[in-house]
Amino acid sequence: MIPIFLGILTKRYLPKNAVELAKPLKILSGFIFIAFLLIALLANYQIFLKMIHRVFLYVFLMNTTGFLLGYYFAKLVRLDERDARCISIETGIQNSGLGLVLIFAFFGGQGSMAIIAAVWGIWHGLAGVSLAWFWSRRRIPF
């Protein structure tokens, strides 16, 4: 919450600084996220090797189900294609960075939980970007 609050205040009271800081902070947050993933992986490498096939299957199924349910539910309630795509991506991608922070803060970084969040984060990022790229190549009918 603190970074969000600081970002809102900066954009409100120092808009020029907010624009200048946006790109470097985006890059920094990406590196911090990758560091969390690597720490979780390295601290639990043996558990990772033991569980990766099951974890990946569950993460893949959860992600795909989220994409499909988000898209088709939006269509069911008669939203247009643009909104259906947006809801699909929002539903399919969950906040794995927050998941890692919560695991480390409240569960002592339990290996199996950290591995799930790490795989979740990597896969959801790749799948979300891939779906967004795919849809960016397909024209939205009007």
TrEMBL record:
Q: Which keywords has UniProt assigned to this entry? A: Membrane, Transmembrane, Transmembrane helix
InterPro entries reported in the protein's UniProt record? Bilac:Na_transpt (IPR004710), Na+/solute_symporter_sf (IPR038770)
Membrane-crossing segments per the record: 21-43, 55-74, 86-107, 113-135
Q: Which domain of life is it from?
A: Bacteria
Q: What is this protein called?
A: Bile acid transporter family protein
Organism of origin is: Leptospira borgpetersenii serovar Hardjo-bovis str. Sponselee
